[in-house]
Amino acid sequence: MSEILSFNHITFSYTPENAEARKAVQDVSFSVNQGEWIAIVGHNGSGKSTMAKLMCGLLFPEQGEVRIKRDVLTEENLWEIRSQIGMVFQNPDNQFVGATVQDDVAFSLENNGVPYEEMVIRVKEALEQVKMEGFINHEPHHLSGGQKQRVAIAGALAMYPQILILDEATSMLDPQGREEVLKTVQALREKIGLTVLSITHDLEEALLADRVIFMNDGKKYAEGTPAEIFALGDQLVDFGLDLPFATKMTKLLQAQGVQLVGQHMTEEELVNDLWTSNFNK
Amino acid sequence: MMEKMIFGRYIPGNSFVHQLDPRSKLIFVFAFIIIVFLANNIVTYAILLAFTLFVILMSRIRLYFLVNGLKPVIFLMAFTFILHILMNKEGAVLLDLGFMKIHEEGLKQGIFISMRFLVLVFITSILTLTTSPISITDGLETLLNPLKKIKLPVHELALMMSISLRFIPTLMDETDKIMKAQMARGSDLSAGPLKDRLKAVVPLLVPLFVSAFKRAEDLATAMEVRGYRGGEGRTRYRQLKWDIKDTMSLVLLLAVAATLWLLRN
Questions:
Q1: Domain for residue B46, yes or no?
Q2: Based on the domain organization, do B152 and B124 belong to the same domain?
Q3: Chain B neighbors of A139, CB-CB under 8 A
């Protein structure tokens, strides 16, 4: 598998003139392979959103370098690299530029000078991929939050990006909208092999990832598969993160003396273990 | 409800007028505003009125919406009408009320001026009723394109306008929410003397402005990430198509103008 994005000892501070001040991101390194789904988790102020901004060149690191497909991100290749990265932000309303769904999807294409005939094809294609083709002429205020986020994903997809970054893209949605969006991303990943980087404090969302990077106080605290990260248990709770429901449930059951082996991350795993737990005695 | 006030102005449809290119409609309206001043006798005003009725018929807009559009200018119309009746002392006396006399010319001019208002309001209303705000923006952008040469930021202005239009409903929703939140805390927006009511608006505007600035910042970030770097090298997804219909409607207007020119005093 080839590497598609890497952080190389990145340090960033919003107040560089003050050397004493806490760095927003401090000496963070990691790399992402093509087709992987990485979740970056951490509580508020842990530096995870700053990392998203560093990835697409909205901010430049004080030290270290960001590489996209082995190219170091610089002022010169900024626009070239941005066209390869799709980003979906937190607030569904504040990233909807166009007057209607199709205009919004076409926005990045217009910016990059794609000819009209091709735009029409790409807009249709992108909307089909997120199953919003029936809403082509809808105005944003007639869409739900989840639908708006799917349009935002379509807007990113129209550019045929290499990487899709979700910057807390589901945090303002209701459970139904969240599921809509995550299902869409999952399907896309299977279909077109998109690399996904989701920045989130929702651990249920992090469960979908191949790898989780756990940020605390601007530093990388841990990195591993979701199972490895959730095995940290109480440490996560100490850092202000909520464990997935099933993991919490297991802990409480164990405290009550129920014999359960190991960790459970999804409800299904827990239920399966619960009703077979008596056989293991 | 507030949404209806602004967006109710555009009535989607599929009439001849709806199908016209926004550019031709804009040119039509601007030209019409000038042409109206050509009329100066009964025949020419009759032609003008007949033509306006024809356009209304073609647009298939219900008269109710047009009359609605008249409301803001009805006072102005009445005022100029009365002014003409009182001040114009030419022609034969039609009615002698003792303290004042109504002259023939005064009545005629009064009716003409009111008619002028009427057709102007009707035609401009038809423009906004049959063209969505975003199409008008597109049309204006293309029409004003030559002004780029004198450094007028046409693209930027058009983008600003379309983003404003896009955010009106969003901000309306927000106002509604803030209003309810303040009402739940006991602020009364609908009662009391004017001074108190104005004061009650302040706690409504401050949060609205704060959130609008936050939105603007988020939107700017999103636009930058999506590769927006000004109008240079940009292509357009919204295409305007100049049809034979558009040429036809402008030719028709030209014919009307020529007739008015010939028949005026």
A1: yes
A2: no
A3: 166, 169
Domain-located, residue B116: yes
Alpha-carbon distance A11 to nearest alpha carbon in chain B (angstroms):
21
pTM of the model: 0.82
The verdict on residue B236 lying in a domain is no
CB within 8 Å: A111 and B134: no
Q: Is residue B28 part of a domain?
A: yes
Q: Which residues of A touch B226 (CB under 8 A)?
A: 82, 87, 97, 107-108, 111, 155-156
Residues B113 and B35 in one domain: yes
CA angle A249, A253, A255 (to 5 degrees): 120
Q: Is B17 in the same domain as B56?
A: yes
Of B173, B214, B237, the CB nearest to A110: B237
Shared domain check, B40 and B152: no
Q: In tens digits, what is the pLDDT along chain A, a chain of 281 residues?
A: 688 999 999 999 988 887 777 888 989 999 999 999 999 988 888 888 899 999 988 999 998 999 988 888 888 888 989 999 999 999 999 999 998 999 999 999 999 999 999 999 999 999 999 999 999 989 888 899 999 999 999 999 999 999 999 999 998 888 888 998 999 999 988 888 899 999 988 888 888 899 999 888 888 888 999 888 888 777 777 777 777 777 778 888 888 877 777 667 777 778 888 887 767 65
Q: How many domains are there within chain B?
A: 2
Q: Which domain holds residue B163?
A: 146-225
Same-domain pairing of B51 and B112: yes
**Does the ipTM surpass 0.90?**
no
A127–B contact, CB cutoff 8 A: no
Mutate to test the interface with B, among A76, A110, A148 (most CBs of B within 10 A): A110
Q: Is there a contact between A99 and B221 if contact means CB atoms under 8 Å apart?
A: no
> Could you tell me if B254 and B127 lie in one domain?
yes
